[in-house]
Amino acid sequence: MSRTVARLTGDTPFTDMMIALSPPGDIISFAGAVTATRVAFGQYVWRTTAATTAYTMVGAVSGVIFRTGVQDDYQQAFGSTRAGGANNLPFAWPQTNATGNIVLGTFVSIPVLNSVNFVVGQGVIIDTVASGVQEFAIITSIPDGTHIVVNKIANSHTAPYPVNGNPFTTPGPRQGRPPFAGFSQLSPQINPPSKGINILQIAIIYNVVTTAITVPTAGLAVTSFSNVTAPVTTTLIPNATNGLATAVGGQPYVIPIPVPVANQGFLVTPNSVVSVEFDFTTGATGNVDIYGFIITGQYNYD
């Protein structure tokens, strides 16, 4: 069998992802006192201890491995119309921030926090979409650890602004499972194949032990960060009642809450954190057991 330098990659995700967030390590109470309690062997909860108190319980999904995707690598490919295509490089990496302003011109030196991991010949995206002047350039030299020189700049840019490597530029075949419509096969891919995770549902597991709770809400959000820029929070599941039960129950509730179809998608934005929030107000005696949050959806690590 002949040798190959490539690895098999898939663009069709698996659909059986399940991630369990459980107390005490994965879930934190940001408002309201709790105690770590052993209900039984294998059953461990946060137990609320404050009566008539508004609680905020948050579970971080961000410890899971996310991916931004990689450029396609077919070995026999003829490359891209842009430099950086068909070479299996990670999409939108490496990243740094510019520390000085630049103006249009050729062979422009961009002062950056750190030039480590960038290489000559690499494609970079300069600035944000929101700036209105985002552009693509090729690195022609790296004179030191705090500068990169690019072939051409068409716009002026005011620091701070991001400089991200390896924009996805590789034309490739249709993604997904066949059959494909005839003409669709002639359209090149302009986005990286879906990688990482796509959250489709959360489930809140809790037991109202003593008196009923009120105003329960649960939601799912992803917050993305950019240097010296206000964080951007995107709601995947609105923080609302979402079918949550309030009555005292002999056994734990398991309340599944789907992500609206319009909000579904692989989480590929760099520098983002994902969290589940469960809010409620305890009754007169205040005992509610929080068993955990279950995340289900799709994943693609191939």
Briefly summarize what is shown.
By secondary structure, the chain is mainly β.
Q: What report would you give on this structure?
A:
This protein folds into 2 domains: 162 residues, Jelly Rolls; 71 residues. The chain is 0% helix and 43% strand. A hairpin with an 8-residue loop joins strand 8 and strand 9. The protein is elongated and about 70 Å long.
Ends distance: 22 Å
Number of strands: 17
The appropriate CATH architecture of the largest domain is: Sandwich
The backbone outline, from C-alpha atoms, is elongated
**Count of helical regions:** 0
Radius of gyration: 24 Å
Key descriptive features of the protein:
single chain, 302 residues, mainly beta, Jelly Rolls, 2 domains, six-stranded antiparallel sheet, 17 strands, 0% helix, 43% strand, elongated
Give the topology:
Blueprint: E1 14-21, E2 27-31, E3 34-40, E4 43-48, E5 54-60, E6 95-97, E7 105-111, E8 123-126, E9 135-144, E10 147-153, E11 162-165, E12 196-208, E13 214-224, E14 232-240, E15 253-258, E16 272-281, E17 288-300
Antiparallel strand pairs: 1-17, 2-5, 3-4, 4-17, 5-16, 6-11, 7-10, 8-9, 8-11, 9-10, 12-15, 12-17, 13-14, 13-16
